[in-house]
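TICKET: design request
STATUS: open
ATTACHED STRUCTURE:
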């Protein structure tokens, strides 16, 4: 069988180049990006779980924890009032000044949020 010069195939490349997905820099970049995505996903899940509690539930829990403390010394009483101020301070801006008013306000917010659901 004779070869036809018109139909012969000629190699147009002088050398072989490895594809970019087989080079080391691609593997390093892919591992870095996958690690970054996993890290962001873990951070997002951790952040979301951490902030699932409603503010009034947090305040109820903090007030319950605070009411269990024993106040024996002057320093204990001082710490108690600092903690109470930290819990109640945001309510001071809306005109709540006593613990009873605070509890009523928290119950109102909790009922209001349950009605919205």
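STATUS: resolved
RESOLUTION: sequence designed for all positions
ATTACHED SEQUENCE:
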């Amino acid at each position: 069988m004779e070869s036809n010069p018109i139909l012969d195939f000629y190699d147009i490349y002088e050398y072989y180049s490895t594809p970019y997905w087989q080079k080391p820099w691609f593997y390093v970049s892919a591992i870095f990006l996958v690690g970054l995505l996993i890290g962001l996903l873990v951070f997002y899940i951790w952040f979301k779980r951490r902030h699932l509690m409603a503010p009034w539930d947090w305040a109820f829990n903090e007030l319950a924890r605070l009411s269990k403390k024993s106040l024996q010394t002057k320093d204990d009483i001082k710490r108690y009032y600092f903690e109470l101020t930290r819990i109640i301070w945001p309510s001071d801006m809306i005109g709540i000044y006593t613990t009873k008013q605070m509890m009523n306000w928290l119950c109102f917010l909790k009922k209001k949020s349950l009605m919205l659901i």
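CLOSING REMARK: The chain has a mean pLDDT of 76. Helices lie at 24-50, 55-67, 74-92, 99-116.
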